[in-house]
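Project outcomes to date are best conveyed with an example. Our students and postdoctoral researchers have been running inverse folding experiments weekly, and each run begins with a structure described purely in tokens. The record below, which covers 165 residues, was selected by the lab manager from last quarter's runs and is presented without edits.
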């Protein structure tokens, strides 16, 4: 009985804290630190702790340029899948939207997983918590319908299809 009391006393500060929700799951043949994973989950704090990049752009969903901030998807995928060639990303959003993305077409434009718009954390209501953002108005090639579909908001899940290098 004393042992149970001691354990509860040591764990009590942790029991009162709610776990931060997962905002992104990345799935595929992940190799990290010599271990294999089928998927990894990320909280917003974990994504915010990664090196951040910025894109200021207009796009069909806004009237004036907006400033977006988030980690570069290239850096995340290189860390998790550097041992293979990425072929396709399957993006799934909270609102049921899904799209297959040819990674070779998108990678050169350094998309970010935007969690912030104009200095504010994006809520689900404002297309958050994550929005795959491209520098839409800076590259004419990006203004094609395919690239608009790739800019998935309310992004929640990225399934990565790879092939050997």
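After processing, the design step wrote out the following sequence:
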């Amino acid at each position: 009985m004393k042992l149970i009391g001691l354990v509860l006393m040591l764990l009590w500060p942790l029991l009162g804290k709610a776990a931060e929700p997962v905002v992104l799951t990345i799935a595929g043949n992940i190799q990290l630190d010599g271990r294999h994973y089928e998927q990894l989950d990320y909280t917003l704090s974990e994504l915010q702790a990664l090196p951040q990049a910025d894109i200021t752009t207009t796009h069909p969903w806004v009237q004036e340029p907006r400033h977006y901030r988030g980690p570069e998807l290239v850096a995340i995928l290189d860390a998790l899948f550097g041992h293979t060639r990425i072929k396709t990303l399957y993006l799934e959003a909270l609102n049921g939207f899904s799209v297959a993305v040819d990674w070779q077409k998108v990678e050169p434009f350094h998309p970010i997983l935007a969690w912030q718009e104009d200095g504010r954390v994006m809520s689900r209501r404002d297309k958050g918590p994550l929005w795959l953002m491209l520098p839409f108005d800076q590259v004419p090639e990006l203004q094609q319908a395919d690239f608009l579909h790739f800019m998935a908001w309310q992004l929640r899940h990225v399934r990565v299809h790879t092939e050997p290098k």
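Residues 19-164 form a domain with the Sulfite Oxidase; Chain A, domain 2 fold (CATH 3.90.420.10). The chain is about 25% helix and 40% strand. The training component of this project remains on track.
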